[in-house]
Write a structure and sequence with these properties.
Elements: H1 2-28, H2 47-60, H3 62-65, E1 86-87, H4 106-115, H5 136-146, E2 164-165, H6 167-175, H7 195-205, H8 208-212, H9 263-272, H10 293-303
Antiparallel strand pairs: 1-2
The structure holds heme C (2 copies).
């Protein structure tokens, strides 16, 4: 009996030591790398695509990459990244050839934005956005803008500060966070005369669902509608002081969602952060001033068609 216990004890000890060694190995190694598929892609640049790309990049990239001092996309320390992810800096994505993305090919940019795999093969953890379901035309527009002569992306030789991802991030990048597949068929823009289809496209691809569903961990980025608590709110993004900002329920539930809102209430809230008789909406719900009233109204129309979820979320208000 004693001998058996001893054997079990040694066995357990061996397991603990192996786990410890595994963590030590992961901690000392980098975020995992993957094979980079060569994408033969040449951006198509027109004044219209650059303008559309600027609008999209302002809503989808600037919140993380805009540096207030350089007034361009040279990268910043991300104060709202959860501290357990480590010390995270976004990159300089202006056109400088040494420090930025001047040397990247259009194909490498598409591949990163679709899958999350950088040109050197390293996976970019969830604190860098990915666009697995956006239309080909919109990806093209974003790249056309990144290559344009707009001051936001003009070459600025500001070196990147490398992020210092935590052990947790490294472990998660081995077990949970994986690159998205490169789409095999063309992804079309929705028919813009179908308001509900347009609203759905925007609600998914401007990332509204990712903050406004139950939790980042249970979001389904390839099939947003399958995310847990789809648009029912209660997710916990952080503000710039690292405080939790609970997200609102945007389902048509009349009591706890926006079932009693008018289209106009919604447009004012989304584009200008305004709510009658209440504090203005705060970070990370930044005003989407680039949206046209029609686009904001389309998101509202779509949200009124999804299943209501009864989930009361109190606003996080800090003085
Ligand atoms: C939620 C914050 C966030 C958003 C939104 C975001 N990024 Fe990033 N991005 C990052 C971070 C952080 C890194 C650095 C990643 C790393 O350390 O692996 C990064 C890295 C990159 C890189 C790699 C640069 C290099 O030199 O390695 C490119 C290119 C890039 N982002 C482009 C974009 C574009 C284009 C958009 C908009 C469509 C965007 N990002 C949106 C946070 C973000
Ligand atoms: C980065 C996370 C994030 C993203 C992305 C985001 N939101 Fe929000 N949103 C929030 C938070 C947090 C609040 C609550 C802010 C507050 O209480 O001041 C909020 C509040 C709102 C409200 C007010 C609802 C109410 O009941 O007061 C509306 C409407 C809204 N968001 C719509 C949208 C739409 C539409 C999009 C996409 C275009 C979007 N949000 C993208 C985080 C986000």
């Amino acid at each position: 009996m004693k001998k058996l216990l001893k054997i079990i004890g040694i066995g357990l000890l061996a397991i603990v030591v192996l786990i410890g060694l595994g963590l030590l190995y992961i901690g000392m190694s980098d975020i995992p790398s993957y094979e980079v598929a060569t994408i033969d892609y040449q951006v198509e640049s027109t004044p219209e695509s650059i303008e559309r790309g600027k609008k999209l990049a302002t809503m989808l990239c600037a919140n993380c990459h805009m540096n207030k001092e350089t007034r361009s996309l040279t990268g910043v320390r991300m104060l709202d990244a959860p501290p357990e992810f480590g010390d995270i800096y976004s990159a300089n994505i202006t056109q400088d050839k040494t420090y930025c993305i001047g040397e990247w090919t259009d194909g490498e940019l598409v591949y990163l934005l679709r899958t999350g795999i950088k040109r050197d093969g390293q996976y970019s953890p969830p604190y860098m956005a990915k666009l697995p379901t956006i239309a080909d035309e919109d990806i093209n527009a974003i790249i056309a803008f990144l290559r344009s002569d707009d001051p936001m992306v003009a070459a600025k030789a500001v070196p990147d500060t490398p992020s210092n991802p935590s052990l947790l991030t490294k472990v998660l990048c081995r077990v949970a966070f994986k690159p998205f597949p490169m789409p095999t068929a063309k992804i079309e823009l929705p028919n813009s005369t179908n308001t509900v289809a347009l609203g759905k496209y925007l609600a998914h691809n401007l990332d509204c669902f990712s903050c406004h569903s139950a939790d980042f961990k249970t979001n389904d980025f390839l099939n947003p509608e399958l995310s847990k608590g789809y648009f029912g709110g209660g997710n916990k993004p952080l503000d710039l002081e690292g405080r939790v900002m609970l997200t609102s329920n945007l389902t048509p539930d009349k009591e706890t969602g926006i079932g009693n809102w008018t289209q106009n209430d919604f447009i004012r809230a989304v584009k200008y952060g305004l709510k009658d008789g209440e504090h203005a909406l705060s970070y990370p719900m930044t005003p989407y001033t680039q949206l046209t009233d029609n686009e904001a109204a389309a998101i509202f129309d779509y949200l009124q068609t999804i299943p209501p979820i009864h989930n009361k979320v109190e606003r996080s208000v800090y003085e």
